[in-house]
């Protein structure tokens, strides 16, 4: 009997955790939306994913971030090349500490 109460307590803690995190509200609203659909989708799981933001988020928001990441990487490469070029040009006009100490 004690084992039953312990597992019931863990279930209640988990339920409170889900409720506090907003998971229960999100799931409930998506399930209600599915229930209220006049024409039920062929794939209920895809419907849930899309309405929870798992699948839908991947399209516009993620694509924009991926494009920004590509742009930033390209800019970083260009700046690294420019930095290298400027360092080489600077070496021609200003010897390093080691070069100056040797002379």
TrEMBL record:
A GO molecular function for this record? transcription coactivator activity
**What cellular component GO annotations does this protein have?**
nucleus
Q: Which CDD domains match?
A: ZIP_MycBP-like
Localized where? Answer: Nucleus
Keywords, comma-separated and alphabetical: Coiled coil, Nucleus
Coiled coil ranges (UniProt) are: 62-89
Entry's InterPro entries? AMY1
The Swiss-Prot or TrEMBL record describes its family as follows: Belongs to the AMY1 family.
Name listed for the protein in its UniProt record: c-Myc-binding protein
Originating organism: Oncorhynchus mykiss
Q: Quote the gene name from the UniProt entry.
A: MYCBP
């Amino acid at each position: 009997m004690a084992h039953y109460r312990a597992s019931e307590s863990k279930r209640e803690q988990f339920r409170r955790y889900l409720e506090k995190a907003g998971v229960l509200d999100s799931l409930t609203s998506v399930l209600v939306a599915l229930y209220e659909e006049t024409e039920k989708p062929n794939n209920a799981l895809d419907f849930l994913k899309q309405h929870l933001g798992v699948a839908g988020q991947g399209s516009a928001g993620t694509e924009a971030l991926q494009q920004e990441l590509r742009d930033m990487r390209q800019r970083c490469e260009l700046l690294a090349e420019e930095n290298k070029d400027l360092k080489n040009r600077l070496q021609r006009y200003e010897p390093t500490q080691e070069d100056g100490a040797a002379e």
